[in-house]
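User: Hi! Is it possible to get a structure for several chains at once, not just one? Here's what I have:
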Amino acid sequence: MTIELINTGSELLLGRVLNTHQQWLCRRLSDLGYAVQRQVMVPDTATDIQQAVREALGRADLVIVTGGLGPTSDDITRDLIAQLLGKKLHLDPAVLAVIQQFFADRKRPMPANNEVQAMVPEGATVLPNPFGTAPGLAIPVDPNPYRAGAGGSWLIMLPGPPRELRPMFEAAVKPLVLREFPLESAFACRTLRTSGVGESALQERVAPPLAALVAAGLEVGYCARVGQVDVRLIARGPTAAGVVGQAEAVVQRLLGEFVYGYDDDGMAGVIVQLLTARKMTLALAESCTGGGIANQITNVSGASAVFPGGFVTYSNEFKQASLGVRAETLAAHGAVSEAVAREMAEGARARLGTDFAIAVTGIAGPTGGTPGKPVGTVFMALAGAFGTEVQHKLNAYEREAFKQVTTQQALEMLRRRLVG
Amino acid sequence: MTIELINTGSELLLGRVLNTHQQWLCRRLSDLGYAVQRQVMVPDTATDIQQAVREALGRADLVIVTGGLGPTSDDITRDLIAQLLGKKLHLDPAVLAVIQQFFADRKRPMPANNEVQAMVPEGATVLPNPFGTAPGLAIPVDPNPYRAGAGGSWLIMLPGPPRELRPMFEAAVKPLVLREFPLESAFACRTLRTSGVGESALQERVAPPLAALVAAGLEVGYCARVGQVDVRLIARGPTAAGVVGQAEAVVQRLLGEFVYGYDDDGMAGVIVQLLTARKMTLALAESCTGGGIANQITNVSGASAVFPGGFVTYSNEFKQASLGVRAETLAAHGAVSEAVAREMAEGARARLGTDFAIAVTGIAGPTGGTPGKPVGTVFMALAGAFGTEVQHKLNAYEREAFKQVTTQQALEMLRRRLVG
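Assistant: Yes, the chains can be modeled jointly so their relative placement is included. Here is the combined structure:
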């Protein structure tokens, strides 16, 4: 079963927009046990789109194409693919009625150019779009003229906006894929997410004891990310789950203390789970991360049960007024110091009455560094019933990466305390 | 001049990691006047990598390959490309010395498997990596066996971690590209970023008056994003700048009030600029965005001049204690209400003594909705010397998109006030 993904959009190749479909679709398909073999991105030009679709149909059982189904003049995917496959387009009255209703519900007149979104290639299945005007389309390409002798393929077109594509995948694409391409062999994939150990050091520890399982078909991947390294374990065939389970046990035995989560877990989600299970609460006092930790925590549904709130204290005056940081401490040590981090965390914990408080103060850059405290310097404090712990790090990354790495490290401090 | 980009990494095709290189490299190249024609992503397997490189060399003058230069067993790109091009690898003592120094500086022993990163294909130029251990490699493929009669090509390999790839591009790849591929014709690209107008309505307004310029070679693209729509204007050739300038004037005349920024501008950057120019300050009181607005503002270097701080007030108790929201207001209207948004904004402005304060309170979902206040309901307040303005929106998106759209709208309220 071969799957290829084609993302269309000149704005993508001009780097104006981040392609989030690729990760999302690959992830959902791999969760279902399917692997995407190749992803290609081409601009909104007829030659490029048709060439990419032809090549993909020459190799793949399923080709998924995203983008170009909108109402504007650069949305040409539908027409080009119908042309390539020799399928006529017709105006589908049911689809048109849905689009008209979409605008009626929003009390807006329907622009004339939205009508093109009701054009459907012959033989195509319409995939409803409850969150927008462009329906998806699934076309059986059988026989597949670009892959003689290999049986038919499917071609699925999905709209570009993620909030339309994602629900459509779940409601319409997933059932179609499971029905048309039943899994022939078992597939197991487990990702262990680690914090606090480097990629090389990690492989040196786990690779030798995993060698026997690798010989038996285990695939091991390592991936260094912002403030963390993922270890990915994959196996196929009837023993897949057992092989991956054994491999996971090996990694846990050697590196368990560094493993903060699995698969899709983010650090913030792990923290919210751990606090929820313990009926404990967290407050935040952020200077250099500027709300980044709070933003991560509140991306987790259910965060309100453990997170009553926090402070973003950029100015020294506000550190004093809101958290009770003392003027003498600021004068003696500077805002970026162990002493100020400690007073911030203790102040936030006292004011919010939480079990824990995290505080961070540092120099995100690119300006503001000094020889003694270069850009990237950060002090992170964790206050709790146990007392207050402060860590000092040098995270010499650009501004946003600095905030992300610091967020990860600050939450890891709390995680170690919660599981320790 | 044809450029293709190949991203290698099984973790990418499994959807475990977001491919940020694609956008970043395409963006930087297009800023320099070069367009990437195609991007392909393949897993870390020998057949896939070699096939993708062969195909790209068959079409392109420049092929950029990312990933697979790390020290672990799945980092095989260097070996595979050297093999494909028939180039021997040798251990480069200068590169090895740099890697040894990298570990010495960090007071860590060098793992033996990092030595592979000092292997260099014959004829390759080494691109130094000041932020990691894997150097980049630039290989002249001349003659190019996969593209007979078309002259030579270049193949550049870059390391996977963004904090290594990006500085390497600026320091080593950009000068090489400018030297080897001098621009033959002018190129102009301008993106106007709008907030508050839909994609179809926008095209209906601007497409007819732009028709003459399109006939003269202007390319117009529309791209709907979270809470905004971009209009992209591109032209090539000696009149490029003039054509794009005329087109921009048309869009400004028709839609100027919706245009919040240009090209790379983000809304938060625009707000920081506007406040800085006016020597004015902003405070925040965030409930449902949970620090998302503060995080956006503090991603902007220089934010500290206009943003002394803010509150993330998830619980009602903390809304009262920190912002002075009254218990009677909460009891009478509920936390998600115009009255509470108003008291939050006014409280934050009074406590921080700022010119403006933004407050948001809403239901991010997926739970917590009621028939009267469904998931997506949000009240946004802007307090200033002018008084307090409150807007009520229904942002029926999933949790993170809800936070992003709400952030965009809340900052747009302030932008309109600042430029109005």
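Chain A has a mean pLDDT of 93. The domain at 267-419 of chain A is CATH 3.90.950.20 (Maf protein).

User: Great, thank you!
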